[in-house]
C-alpha cells in the first residue's frame, strides 16, 4: 500500500506541472506531499506491525493498534473537513480558472495550458462553452467562435463556431 501511495503522490506531482497555471496557490501541491508522507508513515507502521507480530509482543501490538486508531480518526476528520469546505475549494478553483481563461490569447503559456486542459478533459470553458463569450480573446477575434481545443475529438471539420454547439 505504501508503494502504491508513493506512486500516486509522484503522479500527482507530475500532473501538477501540467496544471500549475490553474493552481496558482502555493498550497495546491499539498495533497501530493500529504500522500507521500502518508506512504512513509504507512511503511513504518507496517514494519512495526510485522515486527510486533513476529516477536509476539503485546506492547508492540498495542502500539500498532493505537497508531491504527489515530490514523482512522485522522481519516474521518479529513473526510469531514473535505466535505465541509468543498464549496470553498470549488469557488477558489473556478475563480482562478476564470482569471487564466481571461489571459488566453492563443500564444502565451496560459493559452497552451488552457488548450491542453480542454483537450485532456474533453471540456470547453470553466462550466461550458458560453464562458468564452466574456473573455477578451473572444471579443477581439470577432468571429463568434471558441478555441479549437473546445472541439469534440470525433469532429474533423470543427471550426469552434458557437452556432454549431453540437461540435463542441
UniProtKB/TrEMBL annotation:
One Pfam assignment: Tetraspanin
Protein keywords: Membrane, Transmembrane, Transmembrane helix
One GO CC term on file: plasma membrane
Primary location: membrane
Membrane topology: Multi-pass membrane protein
Keyword field contains Transmembrane: yes
Compartmental location: Membrane
Transmembrane segments: 28-54, 61-85
InterPro entries per the UniProt record, alphabetical: Tetraspanin/Peripherin, Tetraspanin_EC2_sf
Name assigned to this protein: TSN36 protein
Species assigned in the record: Podargus strigoides (Tawny frogmouth)
Organism placement in taxonomy: Eukaryota, Metazoa, Chordata, Craniata, Vertebrata
